[in-house]
């Protein structure tokens, strides 16, 4: 009998094993839903898969009578736009602040402790302030994402900059590199893979901040819709929306991972994952 | 012509005296090896030469001029590790220095100047034996090949002096021998002084023309940090008494160098159970 740690499943069985928990969840839900619906056909808590299909059909493939929009796709577009703008701004802030502050000793002395303290402000606690300052429009939602994500990215990039071996920087100086050239040609390319990794890790928080902002004050977006239909206990809408958000987050995670591999091939040569 | 003069050099870290009263003059084309026990301050001395550290007392002069307080292209360096840039290919690593000098803002050359530089870099890479690996990234190279790359990267800047900080310390025996041959080759061809730190005494006497022993001359058992190290012995080697690099001469690459070293020790064998290594290819073909 082999020890458990020495048994690795073959490729086909690994795929099967990976699908198993997903399938199991669906089966358990189907059974639970069926039991509840036999007891009470009016039950709203666990709708059948048929109701999901109806709800999706109504929201995604039927024109809204009042606005003439396809609500599901409009919501998706609005939310994705907020996320992309928010994450792009956060990434730029992370690079533009993180690299110089970690790389230049004077900047580190000046801003290091401030950034560490700033990053600990709970973003949701300042959400009312953002609404007051930026109003209820798009700006406050994007600012909330930036407020929540940029400090994390900045600190992560700073750690990565500090981890660059001293020898490399001395070597660069013996090659005649100026501070600017070291930032551009030594530091920046080496933090890029880490930036993509931390973007992936912050996707969960990004969606959290987006949905929080949309839930409180919004006129559209995936989070807005979920909180709107909550009043009618419309689980047939909420659950597909949750699944859709999860799928979008998963695809974004995959896209970041691909982007990291494409832009920083050197980083993954001696790494398995 | 490059002459390095170290005058009354001392370095303290707080109350701890690491080096004191270090004096030496290295004439042109000297291969100086700094030897000494761990923690004696050999690397500190090299860092002072590099301006990675600033001396507490004294000064270092190259050709009569005090060295710049920052690391500069006049002093090339190869460390034991992390001397090359992992995000650049072998060729890009070598081309980096001249490009930074030529293009302050972008750090990139284009067109004919880039091609000329690439040709120069390739010549250098051929000299260090990496011409078949120009498109690889450093992580795809062995430890010895990474050090070859670091040397080429430093040499393209045509430094006045090459500083080596235990450059072969992490390499295995046969790779080390091949690297010894390479560095002697380059040293003779480029006619520049080399200062190398090592704790391998055999390596020091194989490569050096001059040995600087760094150790404490005085010790206070009650306050070990009170006295620093200095040069306790400064010897010039007699070139006629130099051990021959005979094993190294035979090896073309790492594998054949290993075979050559193996053959040297092989005389100790009492029985030969399997011997395929001495088969000549043509004999194998005819059999």
Description:
The complex is a heterodimer of chains A (273) and B (287). Chain A has 273 residues and is mostly helical. Chain A has two domains: 4-46, no CATH class; 71-268, MetI-like (MetI-like fold, Orthogonal Bundle), CATH 1.10.3720. Chain A is built from eleven helices and no strands. The longest helix of chain A is centred in the first third of the chain and has 33 residues, at 71-103. Chain A is globular. With 287 residues, chain B is α/β, with parallel strands linked by helices. Chain B has a domain at 4-74 and 159-286: P-loop containing nucleotide triphosphate hydrolases (Rossmann fold), CATH 3.40.50.300. Helices cover 35% and strands 22% of the residues of chain B. In chain B, strand 4 and strand 5 (65-66) form a beta hairpin. In chain B, helix 2 crosses helix 3 (111-127) and helix 3 crosses helix 4. The A-B interface holds A 165-168, 170-178, 180-181, 184-186, 189-190, 264-267, 269-270 and B 50, 52, 70-73, 75-77, 79, 81-88, 96-97, 100-101, 104-105, 107, 137-140, 150, 153-154, 157, 159.
Characterize this entry briefly.
The complex is a heterodimer of chains A (273) and B (287). With 273 residues, chain A is mostly helical.
What is the topological layout?
The complex is a heterodimer of chains A (about 270) and B (about 290).
Chain A (H helix, E strand, L loop, with lengths): L10 H29 L9 H12 L10 H33 L1 H14 L8 H8 L3 H25 L3 H9 L4 H23 L1 H14 L5 H8 L5 H29 L10
Chain B lengths: L3 E10 L2 E11 L4 E5 L6 H9 L6 E6 L2 E2 L8 E4 L11 H13 L8 H17 L15 H13 L5 E5 L7 H18 L3 E4 L3 H7 L2 E7 L12 E8 L9 H5 L3 H13 L14 H6 L1
Parallel strand pairs in B: 3-8, 3-9, 6-7, 7-8
Antiparallel strand pairs in B: 1-2, 1-4, 4-5, 9-10
Provide key terms for this protein:
heterodimer, A: 273 residues, mainly alpha, MetI-like fold, 2 domains, B: 287 residues, alpha/beta, Rossmann fold, 6-stranded mixed sheet, 4-stranded antiparallel sheet, 10 strands, 35% helix, 22% strand, disordered C terminus
């Amino acid at each position: 009998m082999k020890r458990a740690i020495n048994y690795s499943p073959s490729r086909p069985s690994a795929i099967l094993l990976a699908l198993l928990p997903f399938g199991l969840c669906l089966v358990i839900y189907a059974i639970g839903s069926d039991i509840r619906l036999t007891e009470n056909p009016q039950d709203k808590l666990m709708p059948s898969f048929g109701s999901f299909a109806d709800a999706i059909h109504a929201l995604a493939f039927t024109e809204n009578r009042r606005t003439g929009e396809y609500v599901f796709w409009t919501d998706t577009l609005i939310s994705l736009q907020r996320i992309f703008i928010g994450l792009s701004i956060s990434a730029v802030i992370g690079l533009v602040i993180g690299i110089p502050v970690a790389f230049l000793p004077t900047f580190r002395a000046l801003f290091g402790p401030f950034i560490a303290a700033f990053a600990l402000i709970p973003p949701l606690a300042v959400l009312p302030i953002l609404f007051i300052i930026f109003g209820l429009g798009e700006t406050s939602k994007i600012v909330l994402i930036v407020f929540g994500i940029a400090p994390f990215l900045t600190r992560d990039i700073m750690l990565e900059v500090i981890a660059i071996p001293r020898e490399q920087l001395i070597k660069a100086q013996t090659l005649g590199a100026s501070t600017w050239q070291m930032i551009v040609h030594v530091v920046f390319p080496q933090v890029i893979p880490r930036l993509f990794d931390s973007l992936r890790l912050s996707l969960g928080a990004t969606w959290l901040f987006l949905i929080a902002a949309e839930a409180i004050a919004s006129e559209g977006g995936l989070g807005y819709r979920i909180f709107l239909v909550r009043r009618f206990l419309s689980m047939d809408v909420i659950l597909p929306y949750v699944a859709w958000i999860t799928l979008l987050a998963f695809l974004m995670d995959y896209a970041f991972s691909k982007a990291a591999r494409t832009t920083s091939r050197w980083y993954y040569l001696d790494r398995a994952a | 012509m490059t002459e390095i003069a170290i005058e009354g050099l001392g370095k303290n870290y707080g109350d701890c005296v690491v080096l004191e009263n270090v004096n030496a003059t290295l004439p042109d084309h000297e291969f100086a090896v700094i030897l000494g026990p761990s923690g004696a301050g050999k690397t500190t001395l090299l860092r002072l030469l590099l301006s990675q550290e600033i001396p507490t007392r004294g000064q270092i002069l190259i050709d009569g001029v005090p060295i710049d307080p920052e690391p500069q292209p006049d002093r090339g360096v190869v460390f034991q590790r992390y001397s090359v840039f992992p995000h650049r290919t072998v060729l890009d690593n070598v081309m980096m220095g001249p490009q930074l000098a030529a293009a302050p803002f972008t750090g990139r050359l284009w067109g004919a100047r880039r091609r000329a530089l690439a040709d120069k870099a390739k010549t250098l890479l051929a000299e260090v034996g990496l011409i078949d690996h120009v498109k690889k990234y450093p992580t795809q190279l062995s430890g010895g090949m990474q050090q070859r790359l670091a040397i080429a990267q430093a040499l393209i800047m045509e430094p006045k002096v090459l500083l080596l900080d235990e450059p072969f310390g992490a390499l295995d025996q046969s790779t080390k021998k091949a690297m010894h041959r390479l560095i002697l080759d380059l040293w003779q061809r480029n006619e520049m002084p080399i200062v190398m730190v090592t704790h391998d005494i055999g390596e020091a006497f194989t490569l050096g023309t001059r040995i600087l022993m760094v150790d404490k001359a005085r010790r206070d058992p009650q306050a070990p940090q009170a006295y620093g190290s200095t040069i306790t012995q400064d010897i010039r080697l007699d070139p006629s008494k130099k051990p021959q690099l005979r094993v190294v001469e035979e090896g073309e690459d790492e594998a054949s160098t290993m075979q050559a070293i193996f053959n040297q020790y092989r005389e100790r064998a009492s029985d030969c159970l399997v011997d395929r290594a001495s088969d000549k290819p043509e004999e194998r073909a005819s059999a």
